[in-house]
Amino acid sequence: MKNLKIADIIDISLPIYPGMITYPKNPDVAFERLSTGVSFLSHISLGTHTGTHMDVPGHVFEGASGMEDVGLTRLVGPCRVLDMTRVKECIKVSDLESHRIRLGERVLVRTKNSRRGFKEFYPDYIYLDGDAAEYLAKKRITLFGIDALSIKKRGSIDQRPHTTLLKKGIIIVEGLDLARVKPGKYTFVGLPLRLDTPDGAPMRAILLKGKL
Ligand SMILES: [Zn+2]
Questions:
Q1: CATH number of the domain that residue 160 is part of
Q2: Would 24 be classed as within a structural domain?
Q3: CA of 203 to the centre of ligand 1 (A)
Q4: What pLDDT is attached to residue 1?
Q5: Are 127 and 151 a contacting pair, CB within 8 Å?
Q6: Is residue 29 part of a domain?
Q7: Tally of domains in the chain
Q8: For residue range 16-58, what is the model confidence (pLDDT) as tens digits?
Q9: Alpha helix segments (H runs only) across 69-138
Q10: Is the CA virtual torsion 86, 92, 98, 102 positive or negative?
Q11: Full domain range(s) for residue 51
Q12: Average pLDDT of the chain to the nearest whole number
């Protein structure tokens, strides 16, 4: 890709600031401004699953692989944004079937969560159904991204949206803001902070119009 213009880049990350919403039981974001006497810096406090972030197997499996095991090639490359704005409660197998999802694809889903915005926490956010997660795992996609702070229904005992994908090494990206994104093909670039954590990390994610 030559001469990238700003119009070719869509930022799909949530801003991180004190007072922003976090998923229930996750730490609040706090910034404290410090001075060395000659310059300023901030002490920041936040959970690894704050805002736009990725989940790795250690998020749900004790002792499983963490952030240092994630290959960057999986986080950069072609992706497809699927229109799921008409979905009522959760994304089901029947919502995915018509999209002919292929082996190795990076799939992002735009739901009505993006339209509602992320200034408040809505407990009835659109999530991925357990059977639909198994369907995606069978397709052996590379990455699945959703515009909700969690891929699974709040409080549900069905852990499959996390476990079936992470068991197969499929990366989960949560907290995407797809309000300005039309369904279609893009290049996904999602770079997490290089935190040596076992469970995940905040990520700056963008979409590029066109191929790299
Ligand atoms: Zn997460």
A1: 3.50.30.50
A2: no
A3: 11
A4: 61
A5: yes
A6: no
A7: 1
A8: 999 999 999 999 999 999 999 999 999 999 999 999 999 999 9
A9: 93-97, 112-116, 130-138
A10: positive
A11: 6-14+47-208
A12: 95
Distance between CA 84 and CA 90 in Å, rounded?
Answer: 9
How far is the centre of ligand 1, averaged over its atoms, from the C-alpha of 202 (Å)? Answer: 9
**The token pair that represents 170 in the structure block:** 């499929």
Residues of the chain with pLDDT under 50: none
Q: 23 lies in a domain? A: no
Q: Ligand 1: distance of its center to the CA of 82 in Å? A: 20
Distance from the CA of 206 to the center of ligand 1, in angstroms? 18
* Whole-angstrom distance, CA of residue 152 vs CA of residue 132: 11
131 within a domain of the structure (yes/no)? yes
Tell the residue number behind the tokens 């880049």, with chain if given.
9
For residue 1, give both structure tokens.
Answer: 């890709």
Query: Is the pTM higher than 0.85?
Result: yes
Q: What is the 3-state secondary structure (H, E, C) of 20-63?
A: CCCCCCCCCCEEEEEECCCCEEEEEECCCCCCCEEECHHHCCCC
In the beta sheet, which residues pair with residue 10? 207
Token pair of 92 as six digits: 């089901």
